[in-house]
Specification:
The complex is a heterodimer of chains A (1022) and B (433).
Chain A (H helix, E strand, L loop, with lengths): L1 H7 L16 E9 L9 E4 L5 E3 L5 E6 L4 E5 L6 E4 L7 E4 L3 H5 L1 E4 L2 E4 L7 E5 L1 H6 L5 H4 L7 E4 L10 E4 L17 E4 L2 E2 L24 E7 L2 H4 L10 E6 L8 E12 L10 H14 L8 H4 L12 H5 L3 E14 L2 E13 L6 E15 L4 E16 L28 E20 L4 E21 L6 E21 L2 E2 L3 E25 L15 E23 L3 E12 L8 E11 L13 E15 L26 E2 L2 E2 L17 E14 L4 E20 L8 E24 L3 E18 L1 H4 L2 E4 L5 E6 L7 E5 L1 E4 L29 E3 L13 E5 L5 E11 L2 E11 L2 E3 L1 H7 L49 E3 L2 E12 L2 H7 L3 E15 L24 E10 L1
Parallel strand pairs in A: 1-7, 13-16
Antiparallel strand pairs in A: 1-4, 2-3, 2-5, 5-6, 8-9, 10-15, 11-12, 13-14, 15-16, 17-18, 17-49, 18-19, 19-20, 20-21, 21-22, 22-23, 23-24, 24-26, 25-26, 26-27, 27-28, 28-29, 29-30, 30-33, 31-32, 33-34, 34-35, 35-36, 36-43, 37-38, 38-39, 39-42, 40-41, 43-44, 44-47, 45-46, 47-48, 48-49
Chain B lengths: L1 H20 L22 H20 L3 H4 L9 E2 L4 H5 L8 H6 L3 H19 L7 H26 L2 E2 L9 E2 L1 H18 L13 H6 L3 H14 L3 H9 L11 E4 L18 E4 H7 L7 H4 E4 L4 E4 L6 E5 L3 H12 L3 H11 L12 H15 L6 H7 L3 H4 L5 H5 L9 H4 L8 H4 L3
Helix pairs in contact in B: 2-6, 2-7, 6-7, 7-8, 8-10, 10-11, 10-14, 11-14, 14-15, 14-16, 15-16
The chains are: A mainly beta (1022), B alpha+beta (433).
C-alpha cells in the first residue's frame, strides 16, 4: 500500500525546467475535490522550484507564477495533479480522489493483493477508528466482535490479562491442562513475532501482546482460510493475524496527540450475607446439622465480642473506583526521500482491585529511505516497549467473614489484615527489523529482511507472613530471542489483453531461543532486604534453556484474467528442529479460485449490483507445539512413574542411572499437526456499495494433534507423545455491512457479523478411549474429550433432583444395601439424587455422563456508527449464543466444610433455592457442613447453565471541532469524545459475567470482575 | 556507476541466500543444558551407571511396598509386615481397592528391569572399543543377563504366563514354562560371563561389591533355582557342582539398601519391628530345642511376637549361600539320588530337632519344604515353594485345589498390566471382587 501512496503522490519537485526571465507575480487560486468541496492544507507548488504553499481554510492559495510554469498540487487521498500556468484565470485546481485505489489493496502474507483479486477468506479491520476513541490493554480486545469467525473472549477483568482468541473453532487437545488453546500466528509488518512463551519458560502471566500500543496499528488483517494462511505453513493452522503499523504519508508532517482519562467503576460483585445475616446463617447450619457436642464459635454467639456487630464489606473495601490514563503521540511524514514515523505511548491502568494495575510504555520509530532513483528502498523499524503488571503476591482474598474488622477500623489499626507483599511483572520487548527492497527491472522486486526480536520478562515477588514474620522472595527472568532472515522475490507482470500474474518465491530462516533463571528464598528478617539471598540454605534456584529453528521455502502464484477469473496456489516447505530427521520437513500446499461474476455480460445492466465474487479454496497448514525437544529423547535421571515414585539413583555407593525420558519416551516420528481446510465464499456489494454481504462456509480437519499415549508396561516405559488426535471444525460465517447516507449531514453504518461453528473430536489414540481430563496431581477438571462429541465437554454426574423421602433412595435387591453416594457417602433425604448409570449401586466416576458443550455455537458482533454533522455515535456489541457454562465460583462458595464458620464470607442463602425440608423443590441440596462428603458437587449436571450473552461492549459519543474553531486554535483536526466501556450484558447466567469463563466453560472462580469504564478523551492533529 | 552497484548486489544476493539457507545444520538444535540419549555412554563410568540403574530398578520392583515379602512369606501368612495392606494379602484378598495393593498387581517395575538390562546389553554391544575393557564388557553383559533372568523368573513365579519384554517378540505371550526356560538361558550365559569376585574401581577384588552385584556364584544359584523350578534336577546338579571347582570363591547376592529418595521404601526396610511372626506360629515352626530360632528371631513374650533379626541392614539377601545345601539336596533328590539328598539336607538343617536321616522318597519333599521355610525366612521364597511343590491348597486355607487350577496361586493383574498384549486375567481372579 505504501508504494501506491508513493506513486500517486509527489510532493517535492525533482526536475529542473529551463528558467525564463519573466517577472513573477503573486496569483491566487482555489483547490477543490471532484464534488466541489474545498480542500484545506493541500500542497501547491511550482514544479522545478522551491516555491510552494499550503491551502488555507477556504481552500485558497497564493503563489508567485510565471506563464509557462507548471503548478503541482497534492493532497492525501487524492491523485497529484500538474497544471500548466498559461493565464490568470486558470488557477482553480480540482483533485480526484484516490481513495478507491488506496482501499483496493490489502495486505496478505509476504505482500499485498488487489482486493478484487483476493480468493481467500480475509478480513481487514482499520484500527484508527477503534483506537482513537477506545482504550485497551491490548489490541486484541478491540477486535472483539469485528471479524466473523474470530471469537475473542476476555477470561478475566484483571489489567494486563490475556484474552483468548480462537479463529474458526478450537482445535487443541490435552489430557491435563484444561486450557489448551489453538492460537493464531501474529505477524507485525511482515515479521512473525513472539506472541507467547511456553509455560515452562514463562515467568509473568501478562499478555505478551499487550506491549504493542494499539494506537500504533494502522490495520489488522485476519487470514482465516488455508489458501490465505498456508503461505505461513507450519504455524498457520489456527489463522494468521497480520498487523500493519502506521507509517508517514506525503503532505505536511502529521502530528497527532491523543489523551484520555478513564474512570473504572466496580461492577456487580459477589453477593455476601453481611453481619447479622451471616450470624443467622451460621446459626442455622449449626442448629440443623452440628453433631452432638459441637457448638458455634464464640465469635458468633458472644454479643460482647467486639466483632459481633461487624458487617464488614470486604469487597467494597478492596474494590474501588480507579483511573486509567492513556497518552499517545506521533510525528509522521513522507517525501521523495522516503518516510518517517515516530510514536510514543504511555498507558496507566489502575485496577479496581487493591494493589493491581497495568502500565505500558512504548515507543516506535520507523523510517524508509529511497535510493538509486527509488529502485532501492530501505526500511528500518525499531520498537521498544515495557509493560508492568502489578498483582497481589498470593491472590488477595476478598471474601473474609463479614464479622472480621476491616483494616481501617480503630480496633485493628496498624495491623495488616490481608496479605503483605507485592508482585511486579515486567515484560520488555525490543524489536528491530531492517528491509532492503530492490526493484531490478519492471515488475521484479527482491526484498531481503532481517529482524531481531528480544523479549524479557521479569518477576519479582515478595510476600510476608504476618504471623511468623517470615517472608518469601522470588525473582525470575525469562529471555527470548528471535532472529529471522527472509528473502523474497516478487514478479508481477501484466501482459496481453488483461492477463496479470503475480509470482512469489521466498525463503526464511528463523531461530528462537529462550532462557529462564529464577531464584527464591525464605528469609526470617524480611524487612532488612527484599533481594533474594541465601543465608539459611532454604533457597531454590533454577535455570533452563530451550531453542528451536525453522527453515522455510515458499512460493505463490496468482493469475487473474481481466480481474474476472482468478486462480492461485501456494506451496510452503517448512523444516523444524523440533522433529526427528525422518519427519523434519512438512509441505503445505493450497489452491484457490475466484470469479467476479459481476463483470460478466449478463450483469452489465444490473444497476444495483456493484460487485460480486464467488471464491473457493483448499489448503493444508500446520501447527507445532511448545516443547522443542520432544522428539530428541532428552534423558532424565529421576522422572516420575505412574505410581509417583522417583527412581533411586544411588546403589551400593555408586550413582546409578536407569534410562528414562524427560518428557515421555522419545519418538523420532513426531511431526506437524496438519489442518486441511476447505472454504467456499461469496462477496456481494449492492446499491453503490451501500450494502455489502460476505458469506463463508468452511470445514477444517486438524490431524495429528499431540497427545501422550500409554505404552504397554512390557516396554518398560509409561507413555509416549504421538500425533494422535483429530478434530473437525465446521462452520458458516455471515457479514452484513450497510452504509446509509440520509442527506449530507446524516450517515449510518452498521456492521453485523455472526458465525456458526461446530466442533467434533474425530479420532483419539488408545482405541479412541475417552480422555477424562486430570492434572498431573490428580485434580479432575470435569471435562472429557470423547470421539464424536465437541471438545472439552462437561463430564458430570446426572442429577435427578433431590431425595425427598427415604424411600426414593434405591436399594440393591440382591444385597439389601442402599445406593452409596459419592465419596462413599451414606445417602439421606435432602441429598442430591444422582443417576446410577451402570446400576452397581455405587455413585462413582463410572456414572458420569456427557453433560454439555462449553464451545460457543454462534459468535458475533454488531457495530453501529451514526454521524450527524460533527457528532458521532458508535456502539459496539458482541454476542455468544449456544454455549453451556457452570458457575463454579458460586458452587465453591456453597461447599462448606467443618470449619466453615468464620473462615470466609457466605452467599446470602435467601437468593438461592436450597433444600431445607421434604417437599422443597430446590436447586441445591441440603448444606450439611459436617458430612465428610461435600454436599455441593461441582460436577453436577443440575448446575450446567446457558452461557449465551449479548454484551453492549462500548459506546462512544464524539464531536469533531469545526474548522472555524480549529482555525482559531491553530489545530488541523480535533475530536473530543466520551466512551462508555462494558455497558451492559444481557444473559441468563447466574454469575456476574458470562464472558469471564474459561474456554472449557467454568467460571474462573474468584476471578477478577470486568470493570465498567467511562472514558473522556481528546484527539488532536496538527 | 549504477550498473556497477547492481552487479555487486547481484553477486551479493546469491551469497547471502546460500549462506543462510544451505546450512543443513541449521535445523539441528543441540540442547545446551539437557542430555540427549545419543552419545551419552562414552565412558566406562557412565556405562557402569546404567548397570547400577538396572539394580536400582530391581530394588524398586522388590522393595516398594515390601513386595518381595508380599509375593512370598507375607502371602503365605508366615510373617507379618507392619503395613495396613498386609492383612488383605494374608487373606488372599488381592483385588481389594487399595493403592499399594494395586501397585503390587502391576508388573511394570519388573519390566523396567528387563528394559534397562536390554539397554545395558545394547550399550555394551555398541560401545566403542576404547570405552570398555574386556573385563568390563563381559562383566556388564553378565550382570545385565543375570538381572534380566531374575526379573523373568520373578514375573513368571508371580503371574505364570507373561508377555515377552524382548525387542524381537515384544508383548508376545510366553507360557510359564517358556518364561522359565528363557530365564534359565540368560542365567546360564550370565554364569559363564561373570567372575567369582568383582573388582572395584581401583582394580582390587572387593567382597563388598561382589555381595551386592551379580557374580558367578549368584548366577549359578539363580540358574539352579530356575532349573529346579522346571524340574530339571540333574541339570541343576551339574550347575551346583561347578561351584566346587578349585578356583571357586563363593559369594551370595543381596540388594544394597542405603538411602532411598522414595518415600515408600524406608531407609532400612527390615528395621525395627516391621517384619515379625506371631509367637505361636514361631513356636510351631521352630519347636523348642531348635537352635536356629534364636539366631533368626528376637522373641518378645510380652507382645506375643517374634521379630526377624536382620544381621546386615545395608543388604537384603536374595540369593543366600546358605541355600546352596538346600538346593543341592533338592537337585540330588530330583535326579533320583536320595542318599546324597538326605546328606545335604541334614547338613543344611543343622540345629533342627527333627531327624532327617530316615527320610524316604515320599517324605523328603515335605521335609525339604519345611527346612526351606525355616532357613529362607525373609528372602521371599515361601509362596513360590508352595507353588513349586504343589502345596498351595494345603497350606492356604482360602484356596481349594480348583481355585489353584483356575489361577488362584498367581497374583491378579492390574489394568495397565493387562493392556497391550493378548493375556487376560485368570478365571479365578476375574471372578473376584
Amino acid at each position: 500500500m505504501e508504494t501506491i501512496i508513493q506513486r500517486t503522490c509527489f510532493l517535492l519537485v525533482v526536475l529542473l525546467l529551463p528558467m525564463l526571465a519573466f517577472a513573477q507575480k503573486a496569483h491566487t487560486g482555489k483547490v477543490t475535490d471532484q464534488d466541489g468541496e474545498i480542500l484545506i492544507g493541500a500542497t501547491v507548488g511550482v514544479k522545478g522550484t522551491d516555491r510552494f504553499t499550503v491551502t488555507d481554510i477556504n481552500g485558497k492559495y497564493t503563489l508567485s507564477l510565471k506563464v509557462g510554469e507548471t503548478i503541482i498540487c497534492s493532497y492525501i487521498g487524492y491523485h497529484t495533479k500538474e497544471v500548466a500556468y498559461r493565464q490568470a484565470s486558470d488557477l482553480a485546481i480540482q483533485l480526484e480522489s484516490s481513495v478507491e485505489e488506496l482501499e483496493s489493496a490489502i495486505v496478505i502474507g509476504y505482500g499485498t493483493q488487489i482486493r478484487e483479486e483476493v480468493t481467500g477468506s480475509i478480513s481487514e479491520i482499520k484500527m484508527d477508528k477503534l483506537t482513537e476513541t477506545q482504550v485497551a490493554d491490548s489490541f486484541e480486545s478491540l477486535l472483539q466482535g469485528k471479524v466473523a469467525g474470530m471469537n475473542i473472549q476476555l477470561n478475566s477483568g484483571e489489567p494486563g490479562s490475556k484474552p483468548t482468541i480462537i479463529i474458526r473453532g478450537l482445535a487443541a487437545v490435552s489430557r491435563g491442562d484444561a486450557s489448551a488453546v489453538s492460537e493464531p500466528l501474529y505477524v507485525v509488518d511482515g515479521v512473525p513475532i513472539i506472541s507467547r512463551t511456553a509455560d515452562e519458560f514463562s515467568i509473568t502471566s501478562t499478555n505478551v501482546l499487550a506491549d504493542l500500543n494499539p494506537s500504533d496499528i494502522e490495520d489488522v488483517v485476519v487470514l482465516k482460510d488455508a489458501s490465505a494462511a498456508a503461505i505461513y505453513g507450519s504455524r498457520a493452522a489456527n489463522g494468521v493475524i497480520l498487523i500493519t503499523t502506521k507509517k508517514g504519508r506525503r503532505g505536511k508532517p502529521q502530528i497527532s496527540f491523543n489523551a484520555r482519562l478513564g474512570i473504572n467503576y466496580v461492577p456487580q460483585l459477589q453477593d455476601v450475607a453481611g453481619g447479622a445475616k451471616e450470624r443467622e446463617q451460621v446459626a442455622r447450619l449449626y442448629a440443623s446439622y452440628a453433631p452432638y457436642g459441637v457448638t458455634m464459635p464464640a465469635m458468633y454467639t458472644d454479643a460482647n465480642n467486639p466483632f459481633y456487630n461487624n458487617s464488614s464489606d470486604w469487597q467494597g473495601y478492596l474494590y474501588n473506583t480507579s483511573v486509567t490514563q492513556d497518552y499517545s503521540g506521533s510525528i509522521r511524514g513522507a517525501g521523495d526521500f522516503g518516510q518517517y514515523s515516530i510514536s510514543m505511548g504511555h498507558m496507566d491502568n489502575k485496577g479496581i482491585l487493591f494493589n493491581t494495575g497495568f502500565k505500558r510504555y512504548s515507543t516506535m520509530a520507523s523510517t524508509s529511505f529511497n535510493a538509486l532513483k527509488n529502485t532501492l528502498v530501505i526500511d528500518n523499524t525499531l520498537a521498544v516497549s515495557r509493560t508492568d503488571q502489578t498483582r497481589n503476591p498470593d491472590g488477595l482474598s476478598t471474601n473474609y467473614s463479614t464479622l472480621l474488622p476491616l483494616p481501617n477500623q480503630e480496633i485493628v489499626k496498624g495491623a495488616e489484615v490481608y496479605g503483605l507483599g507485592k508482585s511486579s511483572n515486567l515484560n520488555d520487548r525490543i524489536r528491530f527489523s531492517s528491509n532492503a527492497t530492490l526493484n531490478f527491472i519492471k515488475n521484479l522486486t527482491y526484498k531481503a529482511s532481517l529482524s531481531l526480536e528480544y523479549t524479557r520478562s521479569m518477576q519479582d515477588s515478595y510476600s510476608a507472613s504476618r504471623r511468623t514474620l517470615r517472608a518469601t522472595n522470588s525473582s525470575g527472568t525469562s529471555e527470548s530471542r528471535n532472529l529471522l532472515f527472509q528473502n523474497t522475490l516478487n514478479y508481477a507482470p501484466k501482459f496481453g489483453d488483461g492477463h496479470s500474474l503475480s509470482f512469489l518465491l521466498g525463503q526464511s530462516a528463523e531461530k528462537i531461543e529462550t532462557k529462564i533463571t529464577s531464584v527464591s528464598s525464605v528469609s526470617a528478617s524480611p524487612t532488612l532486604s527484599e533481594t533474594v539471598n541465601w543465608p539459611t540454605g532454604n533457597a531454590i534456584g533454577s535455570s533452563n534453556y530451550t531453542g528451536s529453528s525453522i527453515l522455510s521455502y515458499f512460493s505463490r502464484l496468482d493469475y487473474s484474467y481481466k480481474q474476472k477469473y482468478m486462480i492461485g496456489g501456494s506451496l510452503r516447505a517448512d523444516g523444524s528442529s523440533k522433529f526427528g530427521q525422518a519427519n523434519r520437513w512438512g509441505i503445505f500446499p493450497s489452491v484457490s479460485v475466484g470469479w467476479n461474476f459481476d463483470k460478466e455480460g449478463i450483469f452489465e445492466d444490473v444497476e444495483w449490483l456493484e460487485s460480486g465474487k464467488i471464491r473457493a479454496s483448499y489448503g493444508v497448514s500446520g501447527t507445532t507445539w511448545n516443547n522443542d525437544y520432544l522428539a530428541l529423547g532428552i534423558m532424565d535421571g529421576g522422572s516420575l512413574d505412574n505410581y509417583n515414585s522417583n527412581l533411586e539413583i544411588s546403589y551400593g555407593g555408586i550413582s546409578g542411572y536407569s534410562p528414562s525420558w524427560y518428557d515421555g519416551f522419545k519418538n523420532e516420528n513426531l511431526t506437524w499437526v496438519k489442518s486441511q481446510m476447505s472454504n467456499v465464499g461469496m462477496d456481494v456489494s449492492l446499491f453503490g456499495n451501500k450494502v455489502e454481504f460476505i458469506f463463508d462456509a468452511y470445514e477444517k480437519l486438524t490431524k495429528g494433534l499431540l497427545l501422550t499415549t500409554s505404552l504397554p508396561t512390557t516396554s518398560g516405559y509409561n507413555e509416549v507423545y504421538r500425533n494422535a488426535a483429530n478434530v473437525l471444525n465446521r462452520g458458516l460465517e455471515f457479514t452484513v455491512n450497510t452504509n446509509i447516507n440520509a442527506g449530507t449531514n446524516f450517515n449510518w453504518n452498521t456492521g453485523l457479523n455472526f458465525a456458526l461453528n461446530r466442533n467434533r473430536v474425530v479420532a483419539l489414540p488408545d482405541g479412541n478411549a475417552d480422555i477424562i481430563k486430570t492434572s498431573t496431581s490428580g485434580q479432575d477438571f470435569g471435562s472429557i474429550v470423547r470421539t464424536g462429541t465437541p471438545l472439552n465437554g462437561f463430564f458430570f454426574y446426572e442429577s435427578q433432583g433431590i431425595y425427598q423421602t427415604e424411600s426414593e433412595i434405591p436399594v440393591n435387591p440382591k444385597t439389601g444395601a442402599s445406593l452409596l453416594g459419592l465419596q462413599n457417602k451414606i445417602l439421606a433425604v435432602g441429598d442430591r439424587n444422582f443417576k446410577d448409570q451402570n446400576g452397581d449401586y455405587i455413585i462413582d466416576v463410572d456414572d458420569r455422563i456427557y453433560a454439555g458443550d462449553p464451545n460457543p455455537k454462534w459468535t458475533g458482533g454488531w457495530t453501529n456508527d451514526f454521524r450527524y454533522k460533527n457528532f458521532g455515535l458508535n456502539i459496539i456489541s458482541t454476542f455468544v449464543v449456544g454455549r453451556k457454562i457452570v458457575n463454579t465460583a458460586l458452587l465453591d462458595r456453597l461447599q462448606f466444610g467443618k470449619d466453615f464458620a468464620g473462615t470466609g464470607s457466605m452467599p446470602n442463602f435467601d437468593n438461592y433455592s436450597i433444600w431445607e425440608k421434604s417437599g422443597d423443590v430446590a436447586k441445591y441440596p441440603t448444606l450439611n457442613p459436617w458430612n465428610d462428603a461435600s454436599q455441593i458437587v461441582s460436577y453436577d449436571s443440575e448446575y450446567v447453565e446457558d452461557g449465551s450473552y449479548f454484551k453492549v461492549k462500548a459506546a462512544t459519543l464524539s464531536y469533531n471541532l469545526n474548522s472555524k474553531m480549529l482555525n482559531r486554535l491553530g489545530i488541523g483536526r480535533a475530536r473530543v469524545y466520551c466512551t462508555f466501556d462494558n455497558i451492559v450484558t444481557f444473559q441468563k447466567y447466574s454469575g456476574p459475567d458470562a464472558e469471564l469463563v474459561t474456554i472449557d466453560g467454568f467460571d474462573a472462580s474468584g476471578g477478577y470482575p470486568m470493570r465498567r469504564m467511562m472514558l473522556f478523551g481528546v484527539s488532536l492533529g496538527l | 556507476m549504477n550498473i556497477k552497484i547492481y552487479s555487486k548486489l547481484w553477486k551479493l544476493i546469491p551469497i547471502v541466500v546460500i549462506s543462510f539457507s544451505s546450512c543443513t545444520d541449521f535445523l539441528s538444535v543441540t540442547p545446551d543444558n539437557r542430555t540427549e540419549v545419543e552419545g551419552y555412554y562414552t565412558t566406562a563410568q557412565r556405562v557402569d551407571q546404567a548397570v547400577v540403574g538396572t539394580y536400582v530398578d530391581l530394588r524398586r520392583a522388590l522393595l516398594s511396598n515390601y513386595s518381595w515379602l508380599m509375593y512370598g512369606e507375607a502371602r503365605a501368612a508366615d510373617v507379618t509386615v507392619n503395613v495396613d495392606f498386609q492383612p488383605y494379602v494374608a487373606a488372599q484378598r488381592l483385588k481389594v481397592d487399595h493403592y499399594e495393593l494395586k501397585q503390587l498387581t502391576d508388573w511394570g517395575y519388573f519390566y523396567d528391569v528387563i528394559n534397562s538390562a536390554n539397554e545395558v546389553l545394547d550399550i555394551v554391544n555398541t560401545a566403542e572399543p576404547e570405552v570398555l575393557s574386556e573385563y568390563q564388557r563381559t562383566l556388564y553383559r553378565g550382570e545385565a543377563l543375570a538381572l534380566k533372568s531374575m526379573a523373568y523368573f520373578y514375573l513368571t513365579r508371580i503371574w505364570g504366563d507373561i508377555p515377552s519384554g524382548e525387542a524381537s517378540d515384544m508383548g508376545q505371550p510366553l507360557t510359564a514354562a517358556a518364561a522359565v526356560d528363557r530365564a534359565a538361558a540368560y542365567a546360564k550365559e550370565a554364569k559363564d560371563l561373570l567372575p567369582w569376585v568383582l573388582l572395584n574401581d581401583d582394580g582390587i577384588e572387593s567382597a563388598a561389591l561382589t555381595a551386592v552385584r551379580f557374580n558367578k556364584t549368584a548366577a549359578s544359584l539363580l540358574l539352579a533355582q530356575e532349573e529346579l523350578w522346571a524340574n530339571k534336577g540333574s541339570e541343576a546338579l551339574t550347575t551346583l557342582q561347578a561351584l566346587f571347582a578349585d578356583e571357586a570363591s563363593l559369594s551370595g547376592f543381596g540388594l544394597s539398601l542405603g538411602i532411598d529418595r522414595r518415600t515408600e521404601i524406608p531407609e532400612t526396610p527390615l528395621s525395627g519391628t516391621m517384619v515379625s511372626m506371631p509367637l505361636d506360629r514361631l513356636n510351631s515352626l521352630y519347636p523348642e530345642g531348635d537352635t536356629r530360632r534364636a539366631s533368626l528371631f528376637t522373641v518378645s513374650a510380652s507382645q506375643g511376637t517374634a521379630t526377624l533379626i536382620v544381621k546386615d541392614q545395608s543388604k537384603l539377601d536374595l540369593l543366600k549361600l546358605g541355600e546352596l545345601n538346600l538346593l543341592l539336596a533338592e537337585a540330588y533328590w530330583r535326579s533320583g539320588q536320595l542318599e546324597e539328598a538326605i546328606q545335604y539336607l541334614v547338613t543344611a538343617a543343622e540345629g533342627a530337632t527333627e531327624d532327617y536321616t530316615t527320610l524316604s522318597d515320599g517324605t523328603f519333599a515335605d521335609a525339604l519344604l519345611l527346612e526351606r521355610q525355616r532357613l529362607l525366612v525373609g528372602t521371599g521364597q515361601r509362596f513360590f515353594d508352595l507353588v513349586r511343590f504343589g502345596k498351595v491348597s494345603t497350606f492356604v486355607p482360602e484356596f481349594s485345589e480348583t481355585d489353584v487350577q483356575n489361577g488362584a496361586a498367581y497374583w491378579p493383574l492390574s489394568e495397565s498390566s493387562i493392556s497391550g498384549h493378548s493375556l487376560t486375567q485368570s478365571s479365578y481372579w476375574a471372578n473376584q471382587q
